[in-house]
Amino acid sequence: MAPFLTPTPIINGFKEKVESLLIQGDRLYIGTSTGNLHIYSVDGRSATLLEVKQNLFRRAIEQLGFVKEINSLVVLSESLVTLYPLPTLHPPTALPKTKSAFSFAVHSSVQHTLVDGSKPDEGDFDKAGKAKTVPTVVSYLAVGCKRKVVVYSWKDGEPEEPKETVLDHSARTMTFVNDETICLGYPHPDFAMFNVTTMTVVDFTFPPTASTSVPGISNVSVGKGIGMGAISGLGGYIGLGAKVKPQVVRINDNEVLVGRDNAGIFFGLDGKPSRPSNVEWPAIPDEIGYVRPYIFSALPPGSTSVSSLTSTSPTSPAAVHIRSSIFSSDTQSQLIPFPFDPSHAKAAPEQYVIRVLVSAPQAKSPLLAVTTPTDRTTASTEGSSIWRFEMKPWGEQIDELVAAGAYSDALALVNSLEEALLPDKSSRISLIRGLNAVSKFAAGEYDVAMDTFIELDINPAKVVALYPEPVAGRLSVPQDAWIHLFGGPQVSDNVSATEPKEDKHDGSNASQSDSVSPSRVMSPVGSISNIRDKLKTGLDAIRPSFAKDDDTASISGKRKAPIKDEFTRSVETLLRYLSDRRPKVGGALGAFHITPAQSHQIEALSKASVEDLFDLPNLPLSALTPDQLVRYAQIVDTALFKSYLIVRPGLIGALCRVENWCEVTEVEEVLRSRQKYAELIDLYHGKKMHDKALDLLRSLSEQEDDVRDKLQPSITYLQRLGPEYMQLILQSSQWLLTVDPGMALEVFTCEEPELPREPIADFLEGIDPQICARYLEHLIEEREEESPIFHDRLADLYLSMTLAAKKRNDEKTWRVPYAKLLRFIETTDRYQTDRLFGHLPNDDLYEARAILLGRLGRHVHALELYVYRLQDYMNAEEYCKRIYLPDSDTEDIFLSLLRIYLQPTVKTSANLLLPALDLIRRHSPRLDPVESLNLLPPLVTTQDVRKFLMDALRAPVFDTQVVREISKARNEQISRTLMALQSKRVKITDTRMCPQCHKRLGNSVIAVHAPRGEVTHYQCREAFSQKLGGKRH
């Protein structure tokens, strides 16, 4: 990937030696070695000379800068820093404290300070987390002088008192890292961090010298050190023997890159290395620069060699190496002259030296570089050129990395950019992470890939498509189309974007093209490039067989654990992915009240095209529509089913028995081929495909000899169906009824679920009335059915079967239903009696007619049928017993039967006197004696009715009459005695004495004693009564 376009010259033929550059807005300032200042106007890729300040200084202008707050140009020359206001550059202001200056650094930022100018601490924040601060524009100008540093500052354009501090060394290079920290480059090889607020210094701690491999650069081989050409290239125009300038560039607010010999080391603010790996160059770079996130290094001539040059070429040209600071790898190299064409290189090509003079990591301006021929004559005639390195758009860079398969690098680049620079950052991150996961999957890192798929909510159809047809079915996609499926570029026939890339590189194979270098050469990880060969198409061929070699065959007595092949590992990882997705998709569908039980009402997965399934969005489940969620569920469960078939066949049954969204058409043939009929039947049942399940059960029954083994599976399945499948139940039970009606009837007699009874009765009656009668008997006897409809129907069935058998003169057959009819009409009263009576023939089935006449209250007619038609005297008596009830309308039923016997209403040849006498003997208490005697014929002797007469005399009615008469006579006697007593009188005179106390009675209360009428005082009555009693005894 080449992040920069081919450099374009904005100035050619510059005759003076360039010492410093500054681009500010649309102005380019060039400081020369003779002290002149050239001012250009820059418009796009061209520059126009505006003005030349001749002899601004007597010596070289070593460094240029700009302080925005005071709109002044900062110039370092003659070891002194001078400020020149723009645009007039007059009057200059020399900073006297900067004498013996070596370098300076300028930094401007907006800082939030308190009203008094101090920085806020934790106590200065309000409840909302905002500090009570004032935004202030702060600019710093830090100047590195001889063993000291001087800091000038401005706040909102107002100058502050300069500060200075003593250093151990002189700062030859200075770079601001953040608002408070400056990286100081001392004379080789020391560096330090300086804090402008606390004025403290932290020296760098360099790691032990170590060699780090550098990734290769296309078509360029990197040398091991500085060659002879490099040494010769240092002479000529720029002078020989110059000291190496400390190299340091800012990477971010917390990190810098410092050059030490031919290595670039990343350091943090604490002065310690911040990364485990370094950046190594083939030679010590003349200068390094930085345009986020790329590191530029200007390598001298002779540090590289181009393979296409002739063997007589003494040195290779100078080059600019560009590498990313994110993944520390070479991304591009530019050889001088720009553009470099190795095919036109001479045996002794012209040599140039390049200096990266403008590197503004915090600005949007491009990087500028100056190239100068090393030959003095050429330099004086041709002069120097200033080149503009322009970066490609961020989106184009990312697309190139993706096209090259460098997904980790592309992801690192995207993460380093702000939303303002890359508006579609979020979507790009998701896309690149998905592509990287595909690459990881191809490399055998299945768990890592699946974790990413889960985190990104990748469409499960695309995840399943990474597998061969035994798992993915029609969704399976060839490996060379994986990247395109996941949103990546279309892969050419000879390039596999899923070829895994290494993050570490070997610098021994570095090579380089003329002006742009392609993406890094990636090395495959593991032997998985032919993963499709491993994922075979047949289920029987998915696990490769391993032949034992001689060494293995010689080892006996030890069993080694089986090693899982790549395909099995990948499928087990897929199971983890599907097991994670399944409950979550189910929960999301539950929010819409959609369950797998409704899967038969939803369009099958096979009806959707592969393109439609791949077009399902990669969104969180909560953001999907119900239709999209259903497709997700169908894909997940179907893939889960197929995965179980391959690696965990024991779990297939459990999946089939629970509600699922499996696509039956994609798994049923596999189940049939594996003879997993029970699982297939469970799957059919869950998908409401009951007709297929019943057809399969019927075909399997043909393999059984035992009747129960043949029929029971179908019966059990039919018993699980509800009333909504009534028609299917009736159709599928026909063949069962023909084989064994008794067993088949279990389909309709099970308690759950409750099936509509009337259609079943109609269906069974159409097949065989006897089966229908058995079904109705079950309803009435076992299920306690009380509806008259079924009672009438059963009675009609009994009657019709009886009449049909009689019509066939089948004596043995008709008696069974007739006996059931009699028992039924006698033991229940839920049927319509008059209706059934109307269906009976007038000249047959007299017993049934008699029972029904009794139900209608016509007991005499019923008894006449028993006596005259059936001559069944015992049943007649039993009939009377059943209905007899004292003090009711039926208390004279036995007398009615006796009257039927003794006073026949029809002519009969039977002798009815004997059953009449038997009735009198057995039931005399229930017969009225007088009425019964009146019915007896005159020739009946007393001896024939002796027992009846004896019982009649002992009957309670006679005993009651005697007691009544005796009680009446006794009451009359007592009444007469009372009247006699009440008619007696006692006369009390003045002379009458009390027989007890012998005192005169007078007007005292008296008592009269029976029976002779003695009179005593009332108080003497008890004593006198005792006295009379003693005399009586």
UniProtKB/TrEMBL annotation:
Q: Which PROSITE patterns match?
A: CHCR, CNH
The organism named in the record is Punctularia strigosozonata (strain HHB-11173)
How does the protein's chain sit in the membrane according to the entry? Peripheral membrane protein
Query: Which family does the similarity line name?
Result: Belongs to the VAM6/VPS39 family.
Which spans does this entry mark as compositional bias, Polar residues? 508-527
- Under what name is this protein listed? CNH domain-containing protein
Q: Superkingdom of the source? A: Eukaryota
GO BP: autophagy; endosomal vesicle fusion; intracellular protein transport
Under InterPro entries, the record lists:
Clathrin_H-chain/VPS_repeat (IPR000547), CNH_dom (IPR001180), Vam6/VPS39/TRAP1 (IPR032914), VPS39/TGF_beta_rcpt-assoc_1 (IPR019452), VPS39/TGFA1_Znf (IPR019453), WD40_repeat_dom_sf (IPR036322)
Q: Where is this region: Disordered?
A: 493-527
Chief location bin: membrane
**Pfam families of this UniProt entry?**
CNH (PF00780), Vps39_1 (PF10366), zf-Vps39_C (PF10367)
Residue windows of the CHCR repeats:
747-906
Q: Could you tell me which residue ranges the CNH domain spans?
A: 15-335
Where does this polypeptide localize?
Endomembrane system
Q: Name one GO cellular component term.
A: endomembrane system
Query: What keywords appear on the UniProt entry?
Result: Membrane
